[in-house]
Amino acid sequence: MAQIVGKYEYVSSENFEDYVKSLGKAELADMFLQATPIVEIQQNGDQWVVTVTRKDKTVTNTFKPGEEYDEQLPTQGIVFQSVTTKEGNGFKTVSTSPLAAKDVKVIRVYEFSDTGMVVHLSTNKSDVKAKRTYKRL
């Protein structure tokens, strides 16, 4: 099983622009695409701490698997209502997003390996999927 705790640097995206547009917020696609974040994941007992750093902003989110929490994105103060569960070799986060209609769930599956992290993005209302790849630092 791969180590989850660590620091990861964004490398590339697949179909991410179409994914953001499928949320009905095409105007935000460029903002997300220009971001090249560093993600640091730490574990404190049963809590996980995820810090995302971009050029201009750093946000930290803390969660316990299975419990709802406010997840702040490092983009214009966007806050998701999220629940993250441990799943396989990583995490699955299901969120209600202010970027989408209330019945749309944003789903992110985080898959870890010895060399990095891949985030698979989807929703419960669209077939559009995306992937963001990060290398382990």
From TrEMBL:
Name-wise, this protein is: Fatty acid-binding protein-like protein 5
What the entry lists under InterPro entries is as follows: Calycin (IPR012674), Fatty_acid-bd (IPR000463), ILBP (IPR031259)
Name its species. Temnothorax longispinosus
User: In which domain of life is the source organism classified?
Assistant: Eukaryota
In which family does this protein belong, per the annotation?
Belongs to the calycin superfamily. Fatty-acid binding protein (FABP) family.
State the UniProt keywords alphabetically: Lipid-binding
Q: Which GO terms describe its molecular function?
A: lipid binding
